User: Which sequence fits this backbone?
């Protein structure tokens, strides 16, 4: 099986589509507002590595490699990637990808629908996203040729210097490795970013903490921009803290070149808050929804769009978007998409911080509260 | 703004026309040179929640009883570890409070021991003690209701003679008045019997929530202690019940026409009218013993004496019903939201934190009933009866020519009245003219004009130096004294960009503002307007289903104003300090009850 559509995803597909796609599939199944798309399975990768004996060629490129010899590592990695790139996908795989992409264009009603092409790694045999870096993600890819091309480039990114060295350190064989690739309709957001369904500074589970910037969320994820930060109580959805930062850069679609570019923002714009209160609350609600669905604290990526925008700049359409988003738009509320959701790992794996010292009697509690006077003198 | 303290009370001058204001109050209620060092060391804030106007002399005498009672429970009954009572002063006719901390921290540990035992007894037996309390309160109110003040007769009734009573109106008036005063004190002593502890429980619960969920919105905390049925809302329920009965009996239009008397007369003759009137009679007692204000002023209208007030509310309900609108309070939604919110926060906790949270929330819900209800029994029912009886006494004076208006009696201090009664009854006894009619009217007139001059004065929100910390529970939970409120007061009106206060009840609404400076104006409110007032009274609740939101100058998260708005689902921002100064009737405003912000949209 080469293709698994997100909206056809079942848990048994998980080993063949990797973490990112599994998560996108699960979120879609949960009715969360995820842009439509499909996963290209590890089977497709494996099959493609058999074409032209590419797998064997790559093995040869890496034979006897000393990963500590940086020059050698670099050369071997480059060779491996070139071999993969030259060979390309298996014929059946390419046909399946083109057909799926055509179907996505039909479903969204957008010709040559812009997509994000992202590697979806199996966590055990891949370094995590931040380690692998951005070359695993290609934005605003349009047309079947470009899609196929970038899928192959994702596959090739299994053989970056770092990935090779990492696997060597972890004791994995390169033939153990396989990759899935996610192809997903891209939205061009007004603002985007990440959110945690707990406060990452102190583990407080009653909050959603949002980092946001103008344009695509890549600038937040990469750390290129200091984002606006909002802390929202996730039971009553009140914004309890707002920090507006100078967001010097935004990652947006250049309409003339039809590609994503990083663009500097003028000072007045960069210091404007990038989300309205209604949008902040909508993001928080979405994060909370994802958390409730998965049953544990989540780390999500989200995007807010002004209108249900199709790939051609400015025309709005209601086609190709899941019902939750349409509902939001129809209701006149902010339109928020969920792009990614994965378990939060830092605080969730620790014992919960406790403020109590034992379970006190009612009187003990009241006495100790009365003995904690409330500071009223305003700071000078 | 660099100010960190407010003016000294000794630097405040007397407003023009208010000279001699000190005569209206007790010598012990004034700032004085003999206590200057102490007076200047304390932080005094104006009680804008209960006493938003200048204090009439008699009314002030009763307020003193209230605060003496509050204090004694903190300092002498339960021995609240860090706090004593609340001191009071009057300045230029306005009432100021100062929380009193325990002077020597070394005394606190010993106080803790006593508090554990004494307060512990109450918390451990709370519900049973509250049941006893209701019985006691009703008994005290019954004593007040039984008081009689008769006009002085030409001769005593023959039964007084043949019954060998051995006394006359000379005794009866004096005795009844002293009874009235003493019973009022009894009522205030009861008022605080459990209240201080209730606020201490709230404080503990609020504090714990903020510890375990830093920056948790106050509104969340308050929402979890909501939807609990209390008598304080019963009068409004009765009006809705009567409105429904009127509409279902086809009497709706009849009841909406003419004056109260005309409407009642028309109903009497109509089909189903007797049945409705029977229900109306039942509703009046005790539920129409309901003040339109805080109950602290003789000028506060009481429903029983001003039937036009409950009638106009009821007529509003009738019209809403006839238009097919919902008049019920959103109790089910409030309860559903309460349980949802509590359930979600509880889910986020485990272990000891969870157990403690549940216990504290449970205790707050337990004490909520008394904390809200006592207000009905004391400030509404009991105090309404007291004012009624005072007016009965006053009418005796009016008949004897002591003064012209029944409310003139309230220009006398509590301890001046026995002498006036002596003067009056002596004249009656000796068959001579008492001095009162040529003595009191001028004094009454002078005092009224002094009060008017004081009322016009812009009383500062606070005096003296704010303390580093406040330990007294009421000051925090009820009056909402926080560094924010102090900062606002220090900054003054000009320093505030927009208006902000407590996010007391959720929802964001826009509408035309109507600024009320006295309770009688409640009837002027139009559908969809935003009510702006120094403080709102629970008895205004019947309009809450028609208006869009409220904004007040004062009141914390657990003030009656905030609680009523939450129960009624009405967006509210309380404690803004300057709402009635910044907003004028007719302005369009936005009230954000989620965030505690009020914005003037257009003038």
Assistant:
């Amino acid at each position: 099986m080469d293709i698994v559509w997100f909206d056809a995803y079942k848990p048994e597909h998980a080993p063949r589509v990797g973490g990112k796609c599994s998560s996108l599939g699960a979120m879609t199944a949960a009715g969360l507002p995820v842009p439509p798309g499909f996963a290209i399975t590890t089977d497709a990768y494996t099959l493609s590595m058999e074409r032209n004996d590419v797998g064997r060629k790559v093995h040869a490129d890496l034979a006897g490699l000393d990963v500590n010899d940086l020059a050698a590592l670099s050369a071997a990695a480059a060779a491996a990637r070139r071999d993969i790139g030259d060979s390309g996908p298996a014929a059946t795989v390419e046909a399946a990808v083109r057909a799926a992409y055509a179907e996505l264009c039909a479903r969204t009603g957008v010709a040559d629908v812009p997509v994000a092409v992202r590697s979806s790694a199996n966590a055990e045999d891949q370094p995590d996203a931040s380690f692998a870096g951005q070359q695993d993600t290609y934005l605003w890819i349009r047309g079947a040729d470009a899609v196929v091309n970038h899928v192959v480039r994702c596959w090739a990114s299994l053989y970056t210097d770092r990935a090779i060295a990492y696997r060597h350190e972890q004791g994995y064989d390169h033939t153990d490795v396989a990759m899935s690739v996610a192809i997903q309709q891209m939205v061009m957001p007004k603002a985007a970013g990440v959110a945690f369904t707990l406060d990452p500074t102190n583990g407080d589970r009653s909050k959603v903490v949002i980092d946001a910037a103008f344009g695509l969320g890549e600038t937040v994820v990469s750390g290129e921009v200091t984002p606006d930060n909002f802390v929202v109580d996730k039971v009553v959805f009140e914004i309890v803290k707002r920090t507006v930062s100078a967001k010097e850069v935004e990652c947006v679609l250049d309409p003339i070149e039809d590609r994503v570019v990083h663009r500097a923002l003028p000072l007045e714009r960069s210091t404007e808050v990038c989300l309205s209160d209604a949008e902040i609350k909508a993001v928080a609600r979405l994060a909370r929804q994802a958390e409730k669905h998965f049953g544990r604290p989540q780390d999500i990526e989200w995007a807010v769009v002004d209108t249900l925008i199709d790939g051609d700049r400015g025309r709005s359409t209601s086609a190709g978007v899941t019902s939750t988003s349409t509902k939001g738009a129809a209701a006149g509320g902010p339109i928020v998409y969920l792009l990614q959701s994965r378990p939060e790992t830092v605080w969730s794996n620790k014992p919960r911080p406790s403020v109590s010292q034992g379970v006190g009697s009612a009187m003990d509690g009241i006495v100790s509260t009365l003995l904690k006077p409330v500071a009223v003198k305003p700071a000078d | 703004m660099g100010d960190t303290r407010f003016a000294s009370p000794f630097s405040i001058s007397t407003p023009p026309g208010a000279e001699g204001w000190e005569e209206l109050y007790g010598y012990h209620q004034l700032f004085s040179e003999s206590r200057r060092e102490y007076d200047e060391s304390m932080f005094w804030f104006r009680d804008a929640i209960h006493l938003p106007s200048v204090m009439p002399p008699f009314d002030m005498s009763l307020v003193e009883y209230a605060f003496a009672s509050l204090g004694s429970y903190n300092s002498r009954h339960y021995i609240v570890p860090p706090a004593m009572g609340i001191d009071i002063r009057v300045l230029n006719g306005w009432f100021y409070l100062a929380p009193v901390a325990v002077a020597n921290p070394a005394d606190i540990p010993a106080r803790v021991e006593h508090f554990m035992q004494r307060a512990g007894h109450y918390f451990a037996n709370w519900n049973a003690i509250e049941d006893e309390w209701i019985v006691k309160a009703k008994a005290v109110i019954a004593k007040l209701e039984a008081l009689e003040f008769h006009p002085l007769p030409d001769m005593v009734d023959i039964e007084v003679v043949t019954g060998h009573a051995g006394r006359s109106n000379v005794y009866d008036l004096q005795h009844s008045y002293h009874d009235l005063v003493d019973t009022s004190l009894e009522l205030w002593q009861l008022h605080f019997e459990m209240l201080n502890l209730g606020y201490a429980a709230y404080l503990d619960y609020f504090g714990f929530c903020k510890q375990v969920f830093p920056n948790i919105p106050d509104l969340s905390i308050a929402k979890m202690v909501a939807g609990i049925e209390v008598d304080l809302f019963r009068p409004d329920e009765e009006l809705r019940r009567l409105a429904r009965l009127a509409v279902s009996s086809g009497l709706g239009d009849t009841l909406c026409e003419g004056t109260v008397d005309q409407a009642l007369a028309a109903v009497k003759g109509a089909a189903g009218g007797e049945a409705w009137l029977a229900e109306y009679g039942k509703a009046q007692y005790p539920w129409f013993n309901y003040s339109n204000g805080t109950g602290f002023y003789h000028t506060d209208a009481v429903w029983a004496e001003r039937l036009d007030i409950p009638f106009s509310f009821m007529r509003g309900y009738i019209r809403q019903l006839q238009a097919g609108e919902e008049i019920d309070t959103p109790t089910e939604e409030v309860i559903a939201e309460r349980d949802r919110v509590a359930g979600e926060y509880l889910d986020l906790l485990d272990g000891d934190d969870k157990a403690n949270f549940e216990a504290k929330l449970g205790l707050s819900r337990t004490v909520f009933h008394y904390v809200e209800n006592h207000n009905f029994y004391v400030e509404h029912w009991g105090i309404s009866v007291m004012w009624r009886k005072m007016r009965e006494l006053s009418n005796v004076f009016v008949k004897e020519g002591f003064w012209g208006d029944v409310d003139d009696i309230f220009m006398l201090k509590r301890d001046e009245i026995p002498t006036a009664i002596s003067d009056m009854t002596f004249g009656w006894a000796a068959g001579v003219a008492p001095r009162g009619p040529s003595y009191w009217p001028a004094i009454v007139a002078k005092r009224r004009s002094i009060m008017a001059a004081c009322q016009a004065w812009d009383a500062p929100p606070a005096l003296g130096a704010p303390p580093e910390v406040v330990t007294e529970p009421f000051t925090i939970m009820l009056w909402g004294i926080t560094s924010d409120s102090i900062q606002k007061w220090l900054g003054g009106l000009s320093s505030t960009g927009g208006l902000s206060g407590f996010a007391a009840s959720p929802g964001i609404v826009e509408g035309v503002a109507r600024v009320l400076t006295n309770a009688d104006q409640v009837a002027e409110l139009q559908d969809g307007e935003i009510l702006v007032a120094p403080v709102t009274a629970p008895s205004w609740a019947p309009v809450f289903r028609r208006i869009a939101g409220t904004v007040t100058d004062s009141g914390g998260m657990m003030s009656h104003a905030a609680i009523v708005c939450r129960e009624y689902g009405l967006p509210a921002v309380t404690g803004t300090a300057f709402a009635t100064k910044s907003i004028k009737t007719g302005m369009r405003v936005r009230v954000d009850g989620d965030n505690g912000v009020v914005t003037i949209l257009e003038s």
Q: What stands out?
A: Chain B touches chain A through 61 residues (CB under 8 Å).
